[in-house]
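User: Structure please.
Assistant: Input sequence and predicted structure:
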Amino acid sequence: MAAIEIRTSRVAFHGRVADELTRQDLAPGRYRASLRNGRRAAVQKADGSFAFADLAPSPPDHAVRLAGREFRTRDFDVSWPGGAPQEVAFPGEDELQVIVTRVTGRRVSFATIPFLPTIPAGSEVIGESGFTTALDEDLEGVDVDGAALQATGTIAPGHALRIVRSRRLLLRPGPYYEFPPGSTVAAFRVVEDTAGDPPVADARIRITAVNGAAVTSVTVGGVELFRANLPGPPPPPPSPPTPFLLGTDAARTGLTNERGDAVFYYPSNTPVTSLTVSVERDGYQTQTRTIAVVPQQRTFDQVRLVRS
């Protein structure tokens, strides 16, 4: 009888990927996980998971790329010392991040979310000043504007709050994503200010103000979140500013792709009417501009960069 060859592989590190907008797991056809050095592809499954096997322990760190036509390409480094498989996960990913508008007993209120995929009871809730608690009930559904917590402690109106759904990694929609009808989308194309308007790839577009209000930051549980206090309606009567949370730096900063395209997006009920952005790229003069944004529509702006 011929000998049977049995081959085994040992998983080095693994992760799971979801669509940032819908929070649905991404099947292999919608994205690809690979190593940038060596162009090695991961094993991927329909539940959004990926795994790399039989890798040499770090150093150097393994450079991972997650990419798909609909999404922003995402690069990061993973250190694997060998031994047990390591899950790739980062804080601030698959979570709901809100600004608290009211605290009533053990319930917190926030701006209405048109549709919220389920966050189960017991999920971790992280507030400012190191306060942590958990959801007391499942959080899900249409027009969600509050959550029941096991405790509210030091949480107060105006505070930022992180409600953690899972340890999944997120891919953010890119310029060619099919956004739901009614989405507010600000699309940019960055080109060089020369004949033929050649696209400028890897230009960094950073939001510095929303509706004229400067973007500031607050650190919540080790994660830096960016927000702006939007001006209220004009008097009479005088109206207080409306707190608006952009999210992590990935939500306020984008890199242009090889065609010079980048995009920012918001739910249909988001009160964004203008964005001030800084556009920079090595070898070019930085440009700052403010564009009007039409709610529930796609707004396009072309930025021309001059070589320095």
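The chain has one helix and 26 strands.
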